[in-house]
Design a protein that fits this description.
2 copies of one chain form a homodimer. Chain A is α/β, with parallel strands linked by helices. Chain A has 2 domains: 144 residues, Aspartate Aminotransferase, domain 1 (Alpha-Beta Complex); 235 residues, Type I PLP-dependent aspartate aminotransferase-like (Major domain) (Aspartate Aminotransferase, domain 2), CATH 3.40.640. The first copy, chain A, is built from 12 helices and 15 strands. In chain A, the strands form 4 sheets. A 7-stranded mixed sheet of chain A has the order 2-10-9-8-7-3-4, sandwiched between helices. At the A-B interface, helix 2, helix 3, helix 5, helix 6 and helix 8 of A face helix 2, helix 3, helix 5, helix 6 and helix 8 of B.
């Protein structure tokens, strides 16, 4: 191609954008016959198809013109009210005017980045952290620092590394990818340390409702309302294909997030907002979410059993008490990236853990999803992983 | 509020974000009883509600799990194929792989800005231009220059002002706000000049299918494929509440736009994409769009008649041959911003033209939408505008 045929000059930030490692892996591993424990897809068996049918019928009967017209950038008022009430049950007390409906919570991450990150400014993340957040923030060209973490999440004393950061991005409930859930004591200590450091928090909670034994402790946003942006999603409790999430922001940020939202896509599809509100308005989730709990808990148990039965000595994992993922530590020296093709050859796939670190990737880690495939396939997939690992040593 | 209670530091770009002037005006003017010719809302009478009902029923019957699951960031393959065929009929020959489905074409503008604009880099726009595009680009901190325009659009010799610009943003068909449509000769001359200057084009075409007499000439993208990004929308031919648009990019830009899309919202709702594809796959628009033409043409004629009957001497407008807007020039010295409250007092609203200029606003201009309200109300609204204007002089 000659220079005449490509007059385009890319923005500097475009260099920071890369194909999603996970999506590239998924392409390789989605060939038929491969048992994929790689993806983060909710089980389609949990999608409330009949309720969706009834809700779309009602919306298109009762308010078709409103549902199909341009709508407010803030979101559909009754849905915002529902969200405010939903998070109040978790201890996050907000006015519905503080709720911004987004096109999936991924958009919430993009808007937060757009409003808060300058090129060269610092943001802080966990180790490991959600890859999609790193991708959402990267185009705004931050310096990303990692705070020290243990199995409960970020260490309060680790916040020293985040001095002057615009925010700490944290996923306290059944984190993607580690599966860990932050306990009450850590939440209190972390929030206190953040407030003392003047370090704002961006709290992402896509998995909090997917608990198996006990509901997680109250969100960080309930402890430091003025210093926390809270993100939620309908993707894991209803269906991700609707792309519905929300951001709850302190008053200091609300107007700018709204303006960023207007500029980004005018508003989230009003049709989807009304359909989802119609599905959930009369307590549907109170019956529906426990069926997801029961299913995912059985899957979790199947994966735990398979890991215990098959994995060789020197491998470690913590059994998650909710969410969608096991995080596995292989023996020191084993590179999960190099192992992947051998696992795929045997018929299974996972995501190497390295992708989830902003810096200093731990190469001997990997993520397994237990919700997408059936328990008998989980068992076979884990057995194949163990075989690949044993053949490798 | 003490500084302790607001630990947030906004990004510099947040200063560039402002509440949408139009949305603020709409809030004022949407009080009951005001005849609003201000908004850019398609007539809900054109929404294909019955076809939507059937399509949602079929999608939720035939592919509910796929429609509700996470999906490809590129968009739903059959919809991308449909778009490639649709634009081929206009002379834009592309592979479906070059089509990126977006959450409304507003998102296309945001992604284009994200990938192409550096802080301080120059972009060029028409005078007047679409306000939503200015808002989408603003957070990326461009220097915006205006190219000289006449009633046919940008003057080829005006491109000198755009030297070194990352792109010229241009809306050739029934432009929002001016209603003008670029003729064949101007398209040829403008594209030649852009190519000669190495100035890429971002061509926005939300209104091109809304022609009343003859289809507009072929898009700029058909004349300089390697140098043009083309944006399209389903908002004006189906319904805006679905938030479905698309970007067609030359190969040099495709991967970066896709990565920006992934980071922005993972993908546009798959449910919406499948429903729209189900509606349009068998030639629905061939029957449906002509009904919109007939309706909007009658509205256009009503507004033309009302303007001719009521407006005082010294006012000028060009009769649009498609789209949704009349652009009116008031007598020199009249400030349409100052006039607005007086018009609202009399019971009608419009958008002052000043909002649509990146620089050197022409204060004596205003935009009237002829598609949202019924012809008899258009007549009354224009009469009120004329009264306000006469009382003002």
């Amino acid at each position: 191609m000659t220079s005449l045929s490509t007059p385009w000059q890319l923005a500097r930030r475009a260099e920071r954008m890369n194909p999603s490692v996970i999506r590239e892996i998924l392409k390789i591993t989605e060939r038929p016959g491969v048992i994929s424990l790689a993806g983060g897809l909710p089980s389609p068996d949990t999608f409330p198809i009949e309720a969706m049918r009834e809700a779309t019928t009602r919306v298109l009967r009762d308010a078709p013109r409103e549902a199909l017209q341009y709508a407010a950038s803030e979101g559909y008022a009754p849905l915002r009210e529902w969200v405010a009430q939903h998070v109040a049950e978790k201890g996050v007390i907000v006015d519905p005017s503080q709720v911004l409906i987004t096109t999936g919570s991924q958009q919430g991450l993009d808007l937060v980045g757009k409003v808060l990150i300058d090129a060269g400014s610092t943001i802080a993340v966990e180790a490991p952290t959600y890859l999609g957040a790193l991708q959402a923030f990267a185009p705004y060209e931050p310096e990303v620092v990692t705070v020290a973490c243990d199995e409960h999440g970020p260490l309060p004393e680790g916040l020293n590394a985040a001095k002057g950061a615009r925010f700490l991005y944290v996923l306290p409930n059944f984190q993607n990818p580690s599966g860990r859930c932050m306990g009450e004591a850590r939440r209190a200590a972390l929030t206190d340390a953040a407030r003392a450091n003047g370090l704002p928090l961006v709290e992402d909670n896509p998995y909090g409702d997917l608990w198996f034994d006990a509901e997680p402790p109250a969100p960080l946003a309930s402890r430091w309302a003025q210093g926390t942006v809270y993100l939620g999603s309908f993707s894991k409790v209803l269906a991700p294909g609707l792309r519905l999430g929300y951001v709850i922001a302190p008053q200091a940020l609300g107007p700018k997030l709204l303006q960023a939202k207007q500029a980004a896509d005018l508003h989230t599809p009003g049709f989807n907002q009304r359909v989802v509100h119609e599905v959930i308005r009369n307590g549907f989730l109170d019956q529906h979410v426990p069926t997801i709990h029961a299913r995912y808990k059985a899957h979790r148990d199947a994966m735990r059993g398979a890991l215990e039965a098959h994995m060789p000595a020197g491998c470690y994992w913590t059994v998650p008490s909710g969410g969608m993922f096991f995080w596995v530590e292989l023996p020191a020296g084993v590179d999960a990236v190099a192992l992947l093709p051998k696992a795929v050859e045997r018929g299974m796939a996972y995501v190497p853990g390295a992708a989830f670190f902003a810096s200093a990737p731990r190469l001997n880690t990997l993520r397994l999803s237990f919700v997408t495939v059936a328990p008998d396939l989980i068992e076979r997939g884990v057995a194949m992983l163990a075989q690949a690992l044993k053949a490798n040593s």
